[in-house]
Amino acid sequence: xxxxxxxxxxxxxxxxxxxxxxxxxxxxxxxxxxxxxxxxxxxxxxxxxxxxxxxxxxxxxxxxxxxxxxxxxxxxxxxxxxxxxxxxxxxxxxxxxxxxxxxxxxxxxxxxxxxxxxxxxxxxxxxxxxxxxxxxxxxxxxxxxxxxxxxxxxxxxxxxxxxxxxxxxxxxxxxxxxxxxxxxxxxxxxxxxxxxxxxxxxxxxxxxxxxxxxxxxxxxxxxxxxxxxxxxxxxxxxxxxxxxxxxxxxxxxxxxxxxxxxxxxxxxxxxxxxxxxxxxxxxxxxxxxxxxxxxxxxxxxxxxxxxxxxxxxxxxxxxxx
Length: 321
Description:
Blueprint: H1 2-16, H2 28-48, H3 55-64, H4 73-91, H5 106-116, H6 148-159, H7 169-183, H8 190-204, H9 217-228, H10 233-254, E1 261-262, H11 263-266, H12 272-280, E2 287-289, E3 292-295, H13 297-309
Antiparallel strand pairs: 1-3, 2-3
Helix pairs in contact: 1-10, 2-4, 2-10, 4-5, 4-8, 5-8, 6-7, 7-8, 7-10, 9-10
């Protein structure tokens, strides 16, 4: 199983290794896509923590300060706090190779937690936990409260200078994420802070954020438990798959062609199963966006032409717009 997971991760890593535009090369399309990824991350990460705001409700709260819908007041506070912390992450620049700076700092861990848990006094925003934590389902036992400051200091020192040359960047981010969760340094909000930390590192590596939709939360938590038990590859696949999907979204946005649309809007229902398989196998270019498989019209034309040349029947609806 480990070899299978490792092979899957390496395929995803290959899809991630691409040159994304720098800060001075951002087109309006890329900026819009970055905003969409930001909102989806906030919704997904707070969703894993039990909040059920929809994407439009998250957008209304973060951009207009409007508490749309009928949710608990604490849910709006959590989304607002996480959104503030995620904006801080987005504001950070990549780490230059010639002038290296620490990737991980203790004060930033405190800052991320403080912002993400503002409005929740029980979480003791920005303070290390003061009580013992029960063992995780995996059997892993976090360090006692008195040892947390020393454990975090060793953690920051260990990961301060980025991934070693022989370790893929995303694989290194996964190691940092798992190790942070193992320490469990705060009274609550460790999951959100750990995901923010992972995305801070991805930002400094010039890669887009990762997020896990709540419906895939069990897969993510199981992967974390397996990492605690010594098998990091399932978690590496979860993170790399999300990063690869968001890389594909940004690349598609940079091409400036026709707009991305859900595949089911551009094809007959009877053709969808074969088209989904073609996308999964990499024969049809596609982008995962908001939980849906999206394509450009010209990608469909390209795929149809390839199938026609190969003597296979065309699987697309002609004249789709």
